[in-house]
Amino acid sequence: MDIPRKPTPKRRAPLFAAAAGVLAIALVTLGLGRLRAAAPEVERSGLWIATVQRGQMVRQVKGPGSLVPEEVRWITAETAGRVERIHVKPGATVAKDTLILELTNPDVVLEELASERDVASAQLELFQAKSRLETQALAERATVADLASQLADVQRRAEAYRAGAGEVYSALDARQLADREADLAARLELAKRRVAVVDGSKRDEIGAQQTQITKRRDIAAFRKRQVDAMRVRAGGDGLLQDLPLELGQWVVPGTVLARVIRPEKLKAVLRIPELQAKDLQIGQAATIDTHNGLAKGRVARIAPAAYQGTVTVEVTIEGDLPQGSRPDLSVEGTIEIERLSDVLSVERPAGAQPEGAVSLFKLIDGGELALRERVELGRASVGTIEVRGGLRQGDRVILSDMSRWDGIDRIKLR
Predict the structure, then answer these.
(1) Cβ distance 270 to 333 under 8 Å?
(2) Residue 28 above 60 pLDDT?
(3) Which stretches are annotated as coiled coil (predicted)?
(4) Residue 412 burial (CB count, 10 A)
(5) Does the pLDDT of residue 275 top 70, yes or no?
């Protein structure tokens, strides 16, 4: 007979153990995930660390430039010609009458001779016109005198007849005398008018001839100046800076022959980045660094438009320039925009822009750690920038480029 057997209980302990293990791993993972990642370490010696300060902040802009003469005289060709001789080389000191070079052009010389011939011809024509008109005037005056004499004779005869000399003159003679007198009077009046016309014509013709002579003399003087201008002179005291010509070179009117400057009167021409030039004003103080010393100056002119990303600014020099200063010398200029009182400021971080914001690491725990902070910025200068929020006086911040630590909010300094 079969004996019923009791069912054997299943072994569940291993299953519970496995579940417990999985749960433990999950809890550990969650706990580790909640732990803060260890802060990376950064070498302190390679960092640029600055302290936030409160006080006066001087806003400045800076730009490169060069020294330029205040007085420049460009000497240009007044006529075409070939360079025949060069008497002075660049760098020489010149005076007003210093002969720099000579040009030659036979055509210009011939034109001068032709203009002188025209003047002589016009003078001869004037002389001939005067002689002709004077002769004509004399002839007319002689006619007037003759007619006046005849009229006077007739008038005497008529007076004698009226005085009772009828036995000498008949009535017919008296009538003829009266007619003769009237005719001579009319002819005399016409002759006088001709004299007046001749005199007026003489004045007009001689005046026209004299005007023609004046014009021809002006032309001759112009031609002479052209010939004289081929002997090129400095035109003023100074230094011959440039003479871009060679012997035998042909030049046309308007060609630059030379440049004369006054080397003792120099100004600085600076190129200020256009983004920094918005607050520039005439009269602002400037400092010019010639790399051999400093010179003080004032902003004298600001270009009305930007060119290739910069604004040209001219600075007049106050006082003497450092020794060795000369035209075209490269310089660095710093212009003072304004002075701000009682503001928070810090040295300008890499990439910081005015009126913007930047993320900086602020040192804590005695400088052992640094936490990332968002800093609001204000007005900027060449090397400093205003702090409007995020930092306090005395805070120490890292100004170096920390872009490699983007995404990290805390670093440890060693």
Answers:
(1) yes
(2) no
(3) none
(4) 14
(5) yes
Instruction: Tell me whether residue 226 is exposed, middle or buried, using C-beta atoms within 10 angstroms of its C-beta: 0 to 12, 13 to 18, 19 or more.
Output: buried
Superfamily assignment of 62-69+263-340 in CATH? Efflux pump adaptor protein, beta barrel domain (2.40.30.170)
Helices (H), 245-321: none
Q: In whole angstroms, what is the distance from residue 162 CA to residue 370 CA?
A: 147
The residue that leads in pLDDT, 223 or 152, is: 223
- Assigned token pair, 49: 């660390």
Residue pLDDT, tens place only, 304-354: 999 999 999 999 999 889 988 888 999 999 999 999 999 999 998 877 888
Q: Are 345 and 386 in contact (CB under 8 A)?
A: yes
Residue 382 carries which side chain, given as an amino acid letter? Answer: V
Which overall architecture, per CATH, does domain 41-58+341-413 show?
Answer: Beta Barrel (2.40)
Amino acid at 259: R
Architecture of domain 78-105+231-260: Beta Barrel (2.40)
Side chain identity, residue 46 = G
How far apart CA 265 and CA 226 sit, in angstroms, is: 32
Q: Which two tokens stand for residue 107?
A: 């055509």
Distance of CA 82 to the CA centre of its chain: 31
Q: How far is residue 55 CA from its own chain's centroid?
A: 41
Reduce the DSSP state of residue 178 to 3 states and report it. Answer: helix
Q: How many CB atoms lie within 10 A of CB 70?
A: 14
Report the 3 state secondary structure along 189-222: HHHHHHHHHHHHHHHHHHHHHHHHHHHHHHHHHH
- The order of strands in the sheet holding 250-251 is 231-233, 99-104, 81-86, 250-251
- 404 Cβ contact partners less than 8 Å away, ≥ 6 residues apart: none
- Compute, in degrees rounded to 10, the torsion defined by CA atoms 174, 178, 181, 185: 170
Amino acid, res. 303: A
Where does the pLDDT of residue 171 fall: very low under 50, low under 70, confident under 90, or very high at 90 and above? low
How far is residue 210's CA from residue 356's CA, in Å, rounded to a whole number?
Answer: 80
> How far separated are the first and last CA of the chain, in Å rounded?
88
CATH 2.40.30.170 spans which residues of the chain?
A: 62-69+263-340
pLDDT tens digits, 79-135: 999 999 999 999 899 999 999 999 999 999 999 899 888 888 888 877 777 777 777
The DSSP output letter for 337 is E
146 vs 29, which has greater pLDDT? Answer: 146
